[in-house]
Amino acid sequence: MKQNTTQSLQNDHVSESNIHSYMDGTLSAQQTWELERHLAGCIDCERVVKEMRGALDLIHNLERNDTPDFFMAKLHSKLDEIDAARAPRTFASQIESALISLRSILRTHPVQAFGMSVAVGAVLLFSTLAHPTIDVKLNPASPTKKVPSHVVVEQLLMHAAENPLDDPSADQLAMHSTTTNEGAAIP
Amino acid sequence: MVAVGSIMHPDLALVQRAKARDRAAFNEIVLRYKAKVYNFVRRMVSDVADAEDLTQETFVRAYLSIGSFQSRASLNTWLFRIATNLCIDHSRKSKRTSENTTRLVNSYDGEEDTDREIPDLSFDPQSLLLNSELGSILESALLDLPTKLRAVVLLYDIEGLTYEEIAEVEACPLGTVKSRLFNGRNVLRQKLAPYLRT
User: Fold this and answer.
1) pTM of structure
2) Hey, of A48, A60, A62, which one would you mutate to test binding to chain B, going by the most B CBs within 10 A of its CB?
């Protein structure tokens, strides 16, 4: 640093880095004395130092503000969401969310869902033809009973038709069907 | 910085509790640093609403990654690092067009290069001074600084960080910090000079 100061003074003007160091008070006493002696006789350097001091005074006195209203409330709302997403989930809640996801897939991708239904139907049909009867055990105490496979499939389809996923569109369809039948009954 | 002998820095105690998912401790951290972070971000971006959003995002990211916070670092430095990165990303996304200055160099890439700007003399210094608007001229001049220079000037001259802390925030060498600070201050001095001489 001393070398720099000496060099800059030899070159007639104080270097910018030394002016910054002077402003920050990081020059040694000797360097400060040399620099100030130069400033006393150099109008250009004195002007630069004055301008720099004025600019820094303005910067140091810039207005400071606190955060806007409701900053903490908004932040805690976001943190609550993060905590909720991090919370451990029960088995029941996982099943529920899986069913909700399945339902949304069925709604958003009806064509794919129809294709999948056709595929499942084809598999069931093939199974029915391949296995005319299925061993069914109604309860643990009763003996195994041979039931025609088409009867089992029919019962499964009926069960599925009862809207186990609680799909509101299926409910609307059923309601529409009832309304239409009632309307037909009115003379 | 963090622990001196058996005396633990109060920030470190809060960080340890926050790492254990103690919301009250994290709340205390936010209350302690929100004004500092907000004032820094507000001068890094031109829009007040963006400044609030970025300050919120700073603390959300801090909350998410407090578990990875290294205790040897300063919490102050760590928060400013998150905020600086967010501000740089933000300014990349919304490149601001300078209205009151003419840029001689369009980008600041090199560590030794200076992005020099000259004041637009279409301003009327007398009327601005009469209206005591030097502060707003400075705010405008700060916003016209290249992002990297502005960050260093704000961190050093307003937030009072040391060169070493700024080097940690900016993830750059100490020499680069000094170079950016000197260049940034010089640009501000040149822009404010017409008003300071009066």
Assistant:
1) 0.63
2) A62
Q: Hey, CA dihedral for A19, A21, A25, A30, is it positive or negative?
A: negative
Note whether B28 and B81 are same-domain residues: yes
The closest of A114, A48, A170 to B188, measured between CA atoms, is A48
Name the domain count of chain B. 2
pLDDT tens-digit series, residues B42-80: 999 989 999 999 999 999 999 999 998 887 779 999 999
Residue B73 in contact with partner chain A when CB distance is under 8 A: no
Are the Cβ atoms of B153 and A59 closer than 8 angstroms? yes
- The verdict on B63 and B89 lying in the same domain is yes
Locate the chain B residue with the closest alpha carbon to A65. B39
Residues of A near B (Cβ–Cβ under 8 Å) read: 16-17, 20, 48, 50-52, 54-56, 58-68, 71-72, 74-76, 78-79, 82-83
Query: Model ipTM?
Result: 0.74
The parent domain of residue B156 ranges over 101-196
Among chain A residues, the shortest Cα distance to B41 is held by A67
Tell me, what DSSP letter sits at residue A144?
P
